[in-house]
Amino acid sequence: MISILRRLTTSLQPLMDPPTSSPRLLALTHQLRLYKPPPLSWDDDSEEQRIEETAGKVVSQVGFAESKTPIGRDPETFRPKRAAVLICLFEGDGGDLRVVLTKRSSGLSTHSGEVSLPGGKTEEGDKDDGDTATREAKEEIGLDPKLVNVVTVLEPFLSKHLLRVVPVIGLLNDKEAFKPAPNPAEVESVFDAPLEMFIKDENRRAEEREWMGNKYLIHFFDYETNNKKYMIWGLTAGILIRAASIVYERPPPFVEQNPSHKVLRSVDKNTVLP
Description:
The protein is α+β, with helices and mostly antiparallel strands and 274 residues long. The two termini are 35 Å apart. A hairpin with a 5-residue loop joins strand 2 and strand 3. The protein has five helices and twelve strands. The strands form two sheets. Strands 1, 2, 3, 4, 5, 6, 7, 8 and 9 form a nine-stranded mixed β-sheet that branches. It has a three-stranded antiparallel β-sheet with strand order 10-11-12. The protein has helices at 4-7, 23-33, 45-53, 129-141, 234-248; strands at residues 64-65, 82-91, 97-104, 115-116, 119-121, 148-153, 157-158, 164-172, 187-194, 204-211, 214-225, 228-233.
């Protein structure tokens, strides 16, 4: 019998190189296709059974990779829904790598007014995580999936609402062809930021928080463009720190300080982590 979590394994359809691409983006395409996300601690049925039989750890906090904090779970209470976000990278006029970001509509019921990556929950017709991420990006900001060369996925992250979020890295080879058309019901504005910013100590601050006797850090990045100020933090910041570390092949100069939690035996749909 295939385990629940095995069915949630990240997948992507095989992709060909884009017909036109800058030398840098082509090199990055080949680099990222070699990336393999670290396996979850419950890759198979035997490991899943072992976790169910022992006292495990609570899910990760906002913006931390799921593999960092294995879960001792009850399959009847912990069945996180799956989502995917698109880390859409392109080469800026100055030759730097930039990432497309959105500011969410102030009318949304959750995370209103916050900066996020385009994306959303998996739907039944989605073939894989890349399909989810690009479909949502089209719905939110008018980004044609044909313009995006999906090259890899990162390990899943868990949001504070226990949503399993899979980051999908895609390259925008023709940035001039993308004309942002934000859906006003979901997105207030679309902008871009340098990816390398997320592994630098400039314009960064952190807050130490505590839960169940364990301390952890949440990172905040302040960014200004076109006379508008944005704050990028939490899950989005955590994903972009990881993406930048992989793309530039070096760790950030600051401590990420992922939490190591004590036992939480019951996690249900109403559980929200601080």
